[in-house]
């Protein structure tokens, strides 16, 4: 492909698998989440090799440098060759917090516990 080739920024973001769908890439551009060389761009903005694309998604900013322009969605290995990733590493994932376990006899009594207490106190069952 020629070095002076250009393509739409939303199509390129989708092609290199930075967005799941082209409409998602287009929506990100319209919402102002995409910047090319520091400027907010519309979906039809032309992108060239050497441009810096910043994409904010899912609370994280992806900073990539365009190495090659592609317009069709490619495999992940081919897509990875089309840009140089300068993004900071993602924050560590928080481990799932275990649900607190109630010790037996602590807290609110269960239905079974309530019935045995009522029997012990001699109250009539409902």
- Relative helix content: 25-40%
User: What is the succession of H and E elements?
Assistant: EHHEEEEEHEH
Structural class: alpha+beta
Give the amount of beta strand, in percent. 15-25%
**CATH class division of one domain:** Alpha Beta
Radius of gyration: 28 Å
Shape: rod-shaped
Overall pLDDT = 87
How many strands? 7
The name of the CATH topology of one domain is Structural Genomics Hypothetical 15.5 Kd Protein In mrcA-pckA Intergenic Region, Chain A
Largest sheet: 5 strands, antiparallel
Named CATH architecture of one domain: Roll
N-to-C terminal Cα separation, in Å?
82 Å
Commentary on this structure:
The chain has 126 residues and is of the alpha+beta class. The chain has a domain at 6-85: RNA-binding S4 domain (Structural Genomics Hypothetical 15.5 Kd Protein In mrcA-pckA Intergenic Region, Chain A, Roll), CATH 3.10.290.10. The protein is built from 4 helices and 7 strands. The strands form 2 sheets. A 5-stranded antiparallel β-sheet has the order 3-2-5-6-7. A two-stranded antiparallel sheet has the order 1-4. β5 and β6 form a beta hairpin. α1 (9-15) packs across α2 (22-30). The longest helix is centred in the C-terminal third of the chain and has 11 residues, at 111-121. It starts with 5 loop residues before the first strand and ends in a 5-residue tail after the last helix.
In short:
With 126 residues, this protein is of the alpha+beta class. It has 4 helices and 7 strands.
Q: Would you spell out the secondary-structure blueprint of this structure?
A:
Elements (H helix, E strand, L loop, with lengths): L5 E3 H7 L6 H9 L3 E3 L2 E2 L5 E3 L3 E6 L2 E7 L9 H5 L2 E3 L25 H11 L5
Antiparallel strand pairs: 1-4, 2-3, 2-5, 5-6, 6-7
């Amino acid at each position: 492909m020629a070095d002076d080739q250009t393509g739409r920024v939303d199509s390129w973001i989708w092609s290199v698998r930075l967005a799941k769908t082209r409409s998602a890439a287009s929506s990100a551009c319209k919402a102002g989440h995409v910047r090319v060389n520091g400027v907010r761009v519309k979906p039809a903005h032309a992108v060239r090799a050497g441009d810096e694309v910043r994409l904010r998604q899912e609370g994280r900013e992806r900073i990539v440098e365009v190495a090659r322009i592609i317009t069709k969605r490619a495999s992940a290995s081919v897509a990875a060759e089309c840009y140089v990733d300068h993004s900071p590493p993602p924050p560590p994932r928080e481990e799932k917090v275990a649900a607190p376990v109630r010790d037996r006899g602590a807290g609110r009594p269960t239905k079974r516990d309530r019935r045995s207490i009522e029997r012990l106190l001699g109250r009539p069952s409902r």
